[in-house]
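Chain A, query sequence.
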Amino acid sequence: MPKPPSPCIGVCKFRRDAHCIGCSMTREQKALSKQAKKPEARRAFVTLVMAQQAVMGGYRHWDAAYAKACAKKGVEVPPRPDAA
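Chain A, predicted structure.
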């Protein structure tokens, strides 16, 4: 099974208390996401980012961009923790 893509959607502007306005990750989280090599670890990391977005609010634009990246890799989009 292929691993999910990185939660990064290529915006990379850190303005919201050092969180990216595109994906909500901090610089440190972006570095950690690159270390998640196994599909299970990547899915867990994506779920963490989704939960962080739910708490911070204002990241619904990310859903469409991330779904497109998942479709390109042939991977199912993980369900949002707030939708479970």
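Helices lie at 27-35, 39-56, 60-73. The chain has three helices and two strands.
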